[in-house]
Specification:
about 140 residues, alpha/beta, elongated
Length: about 140
């Protein structure tokens, strides 16, 4: 039975800051004798986005007869999959200078609603619960 290691999350598992250094998953693969390693980490991503990363693994590599271990690198829960990564957050910035004051106010209220501490914790908790459920259902040993 093949042993497979997966890493998910932001720039930490991706290894963006390492230069030529080894990523955490690569070190674990060597030390723990995993046959295969897949890294789905992506810099600047959110806890919610790890659901998409896990889905990508299922689409590309999942085999039910493999012994699979997944490590999920949790990040700041205020990061969200519901905001374009390259978008400007400033309501007075150049991207919105053509907006009238009413549009800017609605934008600000919507942004602040989705980023209250209560909603942020709920979104992040739902994402982790979904990851845990998918892993349990598919026989993947998961760590956070």
């Amino acid at each position: 039975m093949k042993k497979v290691l997966l890493t998910f999350g932001d720039s930490w598992p991706e290894g963006a800051e390492l230069g030529n250094g080894k990523r955490y998953g690569e070190i674990l693969q060597e030390q723990m004798g995993f046959d295969e390693f897949y890294n789905y980490g992506r810099g600047g991503t959110s806890n919610e986005h790890m659901l998409q990363q896990l889905q990508k693994y299922f689409d590309e590599h999942h085999k039910a007869d493999h012994k699979t271990t997944a490590i999920f690198f949790l990040t700041n829960p205020h990061r969200t999959a519901y905001w374009p990564q390259d978008s400007d957050f400033n309501i007075h910035g150049s991207a919105r200078q053509h907006w009238n004051d009413d549009a800017k106010q609605v934008f600000m209220q919507t942004w602040l609603h989705f980023h209250t501490d209560e909603v942020t914790v709920m979104r992040s908790s739902l994402s982790v619960c979904a990851l845990q459920t998918w892993c349990k259902h598919c026989g993947i040993e998961d760590y956070y």
